[in-house]
Amino acid sequence: MEVKSVVAKARKAQAIFEKNFSQEQVDEIVQTVAQTVYDNAHRLSELAVEETGMGVVEDKIAKCHGKSTGVWHDLKDKKSMGVLRVDETTNLVEIGKAIGVVAGITPSTNPVVTPMSKIMFALKTKNAIIIAPHPKAARCSGLTVELINKALQKFNVPEGLVQILSNPSVEKTQELMRSCDVVVATGGMAMVKSAYSSGKPSFGVGAGNVQVILDRQIDYQEAALKVITGRKFDNGIICSGEQSFIYHEDDRAEVMAAFVAQGAYVVPDQERQLVVEAIFENGGLAKDAVGQSVNFIAAKAGISVPAGIKVLVLEAKGIGEADIICKEKMCPVLAAFSYKNIDEAIQIATANLLLEGSGHTAGIHSNNQENIRKAGSRIPVSRLIVNAPCATTAGGSVEGGLAFTNTLGCGSWGGNSISENFTYKHLLNVTRIASISRKKVSAPKPKPTLV
């Protein structure tokens, strides 16, 4: 009964919002959503770590600041209602219209910024939104929505425009998805598949397993710093976080020395299986290892690591299905692979992505434009990050041109409907007015058939 009444309330609110609020008012409202999360970053981040038991407070604060600023940067000058565009050549007119009620499915790994960005995208396009949080993150997601609604009261927005399911469950989420107009699902693959089978238009994401190629003749110290920065961010729970690095076999000593200098512990062969068993159980990630620190992983594995270590590095014994460490590792652990030439490096990255993470993200550190283009052409991903930490740029980058979001489409490779970063434009219906000229046009003479 709760879901039905929540959806009914949202439909009523959306109709009022769509009819009575201008572009300028909507933009001020959207900015306020971002400002609310920015201003409450410390409180929300502390609660997120306390409630979920995952991640790093300081990194979550940085994420709240970065995502709120970035999403607003993308949205502030964009027209999202009425006449969006008139084609100068054909006079085709495009008119943007709201979809209705959005079901926003959000994960425990990003329980603050994911609801925020979905709310911003929905309100920018005059939709109502209902957040269905992960049960493990109901309190911090609930507080996020509560603070946003309190901040929006001064605009007299209709009650029910932004809501969140109380006491969330799989059953409530599934009912919400069947009852809304569009689903935006961020979370585990089971939830995303459920969204796509809900009978409603859906946007979901695929699994991440970011493979990073280290080309030759680069600054390995700089590359190692960036890879480690991405891998350790929020204890490795970012789907776009680096998972593996792939280096030329002749440069092994220099590469490993660079990683050690930047805070990596290269796990000795005799300790390797202990770490593998600490992060994987029954062929999948061990739940108690997700989003945990290096010290936690080392203690669970029963090994000792020097103070100040940021990530663990495991050298792979094969690619793809040949070694379980080729899969996604949502904790500060990296797999390392060697290659003989750039073509083999691309082959390694592709094999690992086809095992898990196809369509998501890959990275390359290179000064060779030909190799960068070759990697982008061959690796089955929706985004290739060049010379930057993947974890903090794949989900939005002013310099790189990627839209700020927390929902990263993986295309057909990852079983998704889009192969780009999800943003406000995906929550618009567009009417196109095509004015066909009545001027008589003489038909072209048919060309003779060639025998």
Describe this structure in words.
- The model has no long low-confidence stretch (mean pLDDT 94).
- The chain is globular.
- It starts with a helix and ends in an 18-residue tail after the last strand.
- The chain folds into 2 domains: 221 residues, Aldehyde Dehydrogenase, Chain A, domain 1 (3-Layer(aba) Sandwich); 185 residues, 3-Layer(aba) Sandwich (Aldehyde Dehydrogenase, Chain A, domain 2).
- It is an alpha/beta fold.
- The strands form 4 sheets. A 7-stranded parallel beta sheet has the order 10-13-14-9-8-15-16, sandwiched between helices. Strands 5-4-3-6-7 form a 5-stranded parallel beta sheet, with helices on both faces. Strands 1-2-17 form a 3-stranded antiparallel beta sheet, with no helix packed on it.
- Helices cover 39% and strands 18% of the residues.
- The longest helix is centred in the first third of the chain and has 19 residues.
- α2 crosses α6 and α3 runs antiparallel to α6.
- It comes from Candidatus Geothrix skivensis.
- Keywords: Oxidoreductase.
- GO terms for molecular function: oxidoreductase activity, acting on the aldehyde or oxo group of donors, NAD or NADP as acceptor.
Largest sheet: 7 strands, parallel
Examine the coordinates and then state which fold CATH places here, giving the name of the CATH topology of the largest domain.
Aldehyde Dehydrogenase, Chain A, domain 1
Find the count of extended strands (DSSP E, 2+ residues).
17
Number of helices: 14
Terminal CA distance reads 71 Å
| C-alpha Rg (nearest Å) | 24 Å
Helix- and strand-based class? alpha/beta
CATH superfamily of the largest domain: Aldehyde Dehydrogenase, Chain A, domain 1
Assigned CATH architecture of the largest domain: 3-Layer(aba) Sandwich
β content, as a range?
15-25%
Averaged pLDDT, please? 94
What's the helical proportion of residues? 25-40%
Number of domains: 2
Arrangement of strands in the largest sheet: 10-13-14-9-8-15-16
Shape: globular
At the first level of CATH, what is the class of the largest domain?
Alpha Beta
* Low-confidence runs: none
